[in-house]
Amino acid sequence: MSKKILILFVALLIFFVIRNFTRLPQKDIPTLAIEKSIQALKNKLPTKGHIAYYSNSYDDGLYFTAQLMLSPLIVSKFGLQDSVIFLFDGSKKDSLFSLKKLPYRVIDSAQHGDVTTYLLLRNK
Amino acid sequence: MIILISLFFVLGIRFHQARIQGLPTAISLVLASTLNLVILSWSFILCLWLSFDFKIALIILVFFYGYLVKKYATFKLTSLKIPSTMSLLACAILGLAAIFYQKSSIPWGGWDAVAIWNQHAKFLSAGPQWIAMFDPALSSSHPDYPLFLPSLIAIAWQAFPGLSNAVPMILGLFPLLGILTILFFSMPQKAIGIIPCVILLVDKAFIDQAASQYADTWLAFFILMGLYLLVELPKNKHLAWVIGLILANCCWIKNEGFIFFILAGATTVYYLFPHKKNLLVFMASAGILLLLILFYKIHWTPANDMAAEMKGSIWQKLKSQERYFTLFDFAKKSMLAEYQMLIPLALIGLFIVKSFPKSLLLPSLVIILLFLAYMGIYLITPKDLSWHLSTSFFRLIHHLYPSILFLYFCLMDQHKKYLI
């Protein structure tokens, strides 16, 4: 009897483990907003080489998440490349860089949650 | 690709299990699966280095395994049997561990998973563009780190296209389940094996670290396997080739693995010294991987950030009393806050342990020396000591914790008449 209960318990555990793994990737976390907003612009970015990174925020986590989402493109922090990804995190009161003060023009943008991603090109 | 990888695993596990004899079936299954992961990781990396199609390499490997299974192992489908109560209990523990792991797990993992491990995996999955990961602009993502975990993630992404964040989450569960399986089945008295598993299951800090998708739990798993094999080696000298691969692969998981490799490798050489043939087998299996890792370090990667920053006098740092006090104070506070379980275990041990078996002496020494070596690195670190301790001390203890529990409960097993 106890063995049957144990088998049932193990079967239930296996069911929940599989079910949880199908749900986990959609868990709403701060990086999801960056991921979704970057994904929306990804096909407008170059496929090789460097892209500059700017943000309103001092949080390095934003930079690393952007780098992860855009790899194998190299996201150079405060680089001087012609293409720029600018992450504006509305949940942060930081003012590291302002979109208006950079010598770039906005090509496109996408928002998800608190994060807006801008794709910029250097002013000629 | 999925079919090829599945065939690779089925045949590979069968072949390795046939070669790993004298160990409990569950442990030989874990070892065989891990050896397959090691071979898969290296095949993938060599294909990248040589610009060779990984699918063709997989086909060759599957045929090679097929030949080896035909020659050295039998392959038959056994009838389904109801597992024993102990096996069901182990499955229940593994199931609970998976549920707890999932509760702590988040897409793309913790800071280092985003900045280092998963990022390197994305570069590896990009084909010839993978060398972009060594670009100086990415120096803060530690491009000198070994590629075992990133290569496994990249392989899975090739098998399941779409770069899903579920892949690193699912892969990260493997070392946790491996650790629990070894702890459960390595004790001669199975009932004793339940205790260290429960200790880890209820340890939220341990589960959180395992769920962070870092390479630290992989290293903890390999250190535990290495230590278990060291304990078994005097009885099972034919495992020399397995221990060679497992120890050398520690260096392919994290740079800290080199220290464990040196300590455990020296112990293995000591054990096998009178058995020259086994010693040669060990040196050959470890040597191949070590040469590949050295090639990777010399040919591809930039210098390690700590090694590059190591300027001032090491001797001055070693003489600084203040650094010893900072280190001791941090270690004491950290142990009391996060590893409270070690204190009652130590007290129980003091009362129960009457003698120290010879088979556990050298493996215990390896863990003590590994701990001291980790502390020694803190003493000479070029980084700010307090910052370095606060960002990595818990991860280094995470490497050792399962092995400490393993040795402790092996010792308890020898004194079980006082326990049961």
Keywords:
heterodimer; A: 124 residues; alpha/beta; five-stranded mixed β-sheet; B: 420 residues; mainly alpha; 19 helices; 74% helix
In short:
In chain A, strand 1 (50-55), helix 3 and strand 2 form a beta-alpha-beta unit. A 5-stranded mixed beta sheet of chain A has the order 2-1-3-5-4. Chain A has helices spanning 2-23, 30-39, 60-70, and strands at 50-55, 74-77, 83-89, 104-112, 115-122.
Description:
Chain A is 35% helix and 27% strand. Chain A is α/β, with parallel strands linked by helices and 124 residues long. Chain A has a 5-stranded mixed sheet with strand order 2-1-3-5-4. In chain A, helix 2 crosses helix 3. The N and C termini of chain A lie far apart (79 Å). Chain B contains 19 helices and no strands. Chain B has a domain at 1-81. Chain B has helices at residues 2-19, 25-50, 54-72, 85-104, 111-124, 148-159, 166-185, 190-201, 204-210, 216-232, 240-250, 257-272, 276-300, 305-309, 314-319, 321-338, 342-352, 358-380, 385-414. The mean pLDDT of chain B is 89. The interface between A and B is large, with 35 and 36 residues.
Q: Which structural class matches the secondary elements of chain B?
A: mainly alpha
- What structural class do you assign from the helix and strand content of chain A? alpha/beta
Rounded to the nearest angstrom, the distance between the terminal CA atoms of chain B is: 51 Å
Average of the residue pLDDT scores of chain B: 89
Q: How many strand units of chain A?
A: 5
Q: In percent terms, what proportion of residues of chain B is strand?
A: under 5%
Structural shape of chain A: elongated
Low-confidence spans of chain B: pLDDT under 50, at least 5 residues? none
Helix content of chain A: 25-40%
Provide the helix percentage of chain B: over 70%
The biggest beta sheet of chain A is recorded as: 5 strands, mixed
Q: Give me the side-by-side strand order of the main sheet of chain A.
A: 2-1-3-5-4
Q: Element order, helices and strands of chain A? A: HHEHEEEE
Number of distinct beta strands of chain B: 0
Computed Rg of chain A = 20 Å
Which stretches of chain A are low in confidence, meaning pLDDT under 50 for 5 or more residues running?
Answer: none
Average pLDDT over all residues of chain A: 85
- Greatest contact pair? A-B, 35 and 36 residues
Distance from first to last alpha carbon of chain A: 79 Å
Task: Report the C-alpha radius of gyration of chain B, rounded.
Answer: 21 Å
Which assembly state applies to the chains in this document? heterodimer
